[in-house]
Amino acid sequence: MPETEKKFQHLLRTVKQYNPKADLGLIELAFEFAKQAHQGQKRMTGEDYIIHPLATAQNLAELKLSTPIIMAGLLHDVPEDTSNTLEDIQKNFGDEVATLVEGITKLGSIKYRGIERYIENLRKMFIAMAKDLRVILIKFADRLHNLKTLYALPRDKQIRIASEVLEIYAPIANRLGMYEMKGKLEEEAFKYLYPKEYNWLKSLVEKQLKAKEKYLDKIIEFVKNELQEEGLGFLEVKGRVKQFYSLYIKLLEHDKDINRVYDFIAIRIIVEDIPTCYGVLGIIHKKMKPLKGRIKDYIAQPKPNGYTSLHTTVFTPDGEIIEVQIRTREMDEEAEFGIAAHWHYDEKGSFKPSKKTKWIEELTRWQKELTENQKYLESLKIDVFHDRIFVFTPKGDVIDLPKGATPVDFAYYVHSDIGTQCAGALINNHIASLDTALKSGDVIEIITEKNRKYPSQDWLKFVKTNQAKGKIKSALAKRSLLDKFLKK
Ligand code: MN
Questions:
Q1: Is 321 helix (H, G, I), strand (E, B) or coil?
Q2: Of residues 80, 213, 397, 417, which has the active-site annotation?
């Protein structure tokens, strides 16, 4: 069987495993379409081009994502790199897949050109995310495969791509709670940016793991026995090794002494529910003395990206120091997949809608932090965020306006009729006057008065966008012409 076919069969098997009801025929059609479209094209590695969209789709399947996202992964480079258009995709695969592919194409390749373009890049990503977060998942999957084949590119390109991954993609993955993705992206980028350090760390970790392997098994057994003795049920107890790049950063803070990084290896206890988490914490502390100041209750106080768990660091019976993490199955899944879990299918193939769509909230908070961090931005002499704000429609669409823009500017941006009929505004569900200066992250709802035919002259005193100014002026000019005519 040719290599491509093997990889495609592997993709189908992966999808089938987490989503037995998936329409594999549709995925096959998308694959055949992409294969045809990229016919004859080669990657820098010398492989057939189709290997890349296939690997992208495989990365998406590892995130257990839904069929349209897998299809969009297969088709993501078609409009940009082949003679087939977005319209062809739309005709063959429908609106949903086409919209996703369009999002990826629009996002384009973000070119890392140093810190001066950093904010601009973030902004582009931010807007794409606000429109449809699934686009970012595809972008991550795409980038992850590009990193894996980075060896085939010249050194300057390697550095550019790896830098933007470390400075833009990985922080976004972290923000979205996608720890696995963040770890994979960072490790690959790290390899190219700091090859010497990477190799040093790699051999250190291997040595350390070998030394700790037996001891880790022993402590896992110990914990299991103690829990069973106390009659506390658990689902799983496992070891976990700290992510590569995070470990490196931690080592830099501790004179590169791995014995001072207490969470290099941790044990993770997965339990049924939250009360059991606290029960298990109690048992752990009863059996093993905790280190002062290292008990963290991320269940009561989740991390900004939504991460929840209990962490503690304890002395084992052998006098070693180890971190213990306690969480439910749900928390474990959230920590691994983050926001991607919102498009998950479970093993029975039924779609698992998110309990709460927190992402607008999350992006809003992030946006606010960036905006509030004015000093940092000023020091970089970047004015992208200084003179622009991002606000949301009630449906979650993001609208980019100049600083100082008001609900009237917003209304005209949405539609000129809404501008003209604008009678009031709700900002974050609170009534606000029409001249209020909007802030990044605000959610704006316009109250209209359907019978109203003309805007108010007063609005010209406070609107900021040329679009609103122009429309108000021309409407008023029309009215005065009409008035003159009626008076005659
Ligand atoms: Mn690509």
A1: strand
A2: 80
Instruction: Kindly give the distance from the C-alpha atom of residue 175 to the centroid of ligand 1, in angstroms, as a whole number.
Output: 23
| Catalytic residue (one of 28, 47, 62, 81) | 81
Give 402's strand partners.
388
Tell how far the Cα of 344 is from the centroid of ligand 1, in angstroms. Answer: 23
> Environment class of residue 476 by beta-carbon count within 10 Å: exposed (0-12), middle (13-18) or buried (19+)?
middle
How far, in Å, from the CA of 447 to the mean position of ligand 1?
A: 43
Enumerate the H helices of 19-85 as residue ranges.
24-37, 51-62, 67-75, 78-81
Q: What is the pLDDT, as a whole number, of residue 47? A: 93
The pLDDT score that the predictor gives to residue 425 is 94
Q: Which CATH class is domain 387-487?
A: alpha beta
In CATH, what number does 196-337 get? 3.30.460.10
Specify the CATH class of 3-189 in words. mainly alpha
pTM (2 d.p.)? 0.69
Give the separation between CA 234 and CA 277, rounded to whole angstroms: 9
Sheet holding 430-432, edge to edge: 430-432, 422-427, 444-448
Distance 284 CA to ligand 1 centre (A): 47
Query: Is 435 an active-site residue?
Result: no
Expressed in angstroms, the distance from the first to the final Cα of the chain is: 87
Tokens 């008990």, located at residue: 295
Contacts of 277 (CB under 8 A, 6+ apart): 271, 299, 310, 326, 327, 328
| DSSP single-letter state for residue 242 | P
Domain spans, the chain: 3-189, 196-337, 387-487
pLDDT tens, position by position, 198-211:
999 999 999 988 88
- 81 has catalytic annotation: yes
Sole residue written with tokens 């339990």: 271
Ligand 1 mean position to 393 CA, how many Å? 31
pLDDT at 236 over 80: yes
